[in-house]
Design a protein that fits this description.
Elements (H helix, E strand, L loop, with lengths): L1 E5 L5 E5 L4 E2 L4 E6 L2 E6 L1 H7 L2 E5 L6 E2 L4 E7 L3 E5 L4 E6 L9 H4 L8 E4 L12 H9 L1
Antiparallel strand pairs: 1-2, 3-4, 4-5, 5-11, 6-8, 7-10, 8-9, 10-11
Amino acid sequence: MCRVVSGSASVVEMLIPDNLRYSSDHEWILLDGTRAKVGITDYAQDALGDIVFIDLPQIGAEVEIGQSISEVESTKSVSDIYAPLTGTVVEVNSELPDAPDKLNSDPYGDGWIFVIELPDAAAADSLLDAAQYAELTEG
C-alpha cells in the first residue's frame, strides 16, 4: 500500500492501494477483465465525514465517463459519485443502503459501490495510478 499524509491540525494517514486506479473525482476502480469495481477513496470518505445515506445506480444503466450516477449523503454534505469510465452498471453493493457506514469503515473492501462492464478495459489506463493520486491529494 502506498500511504499519503494529509496536512491539517491533526495528521491523518490516507490509504492509497497500489493495485487500484483512481479518478480525479476520488473514485477508485479494481479492474477484473472487462469489469471495474468502483468505490470512493479513503481521502473522499474522510472529507465527507460520517456517511449516512447512499443512492445506488440502477443495474443496466449506461454510463459515460464523468457522469454523475450516484449520490452519498454525510453529516457534512451531499456529494455526487461519478462514473470513472464508460460502460454498463452490472452490479451494485446491495448492502450499502442498510449500512452506508461501510463507505467510511472499509472504502476499499466492503464499501465498494457498483461494478461497470467496460466495452474496452484499456480505458482504465487513462486513470491515475497510486503515485499520481497521492500527488493529487497532497495538493
